[in-house]
Amino acid sequence: MGKxxxxxxxxxxxxxxxxxxxxxxxxxxxxxxxxKSLNLPFSKLEINLMAGxxxxxxxxxxx
Length: 63
What we know:
The chain has 63 residues and is mainly α. The chain has helices spanning 7-19, 28-37, 44-62.
């Protein structure tokens, strides 16, 4: 059973993925550090959810 990710998190993550396509990977920690480096007004929970969502999306594209 998967983890539910709110629509707003998915929407923000997709926007960031379009804006910075080469900066994200299927590694959660790298995505989290990059999101922190952007200094956007996201909470720790939002950053973690977005980093995890992006990692899952990109991992699915490889296979």
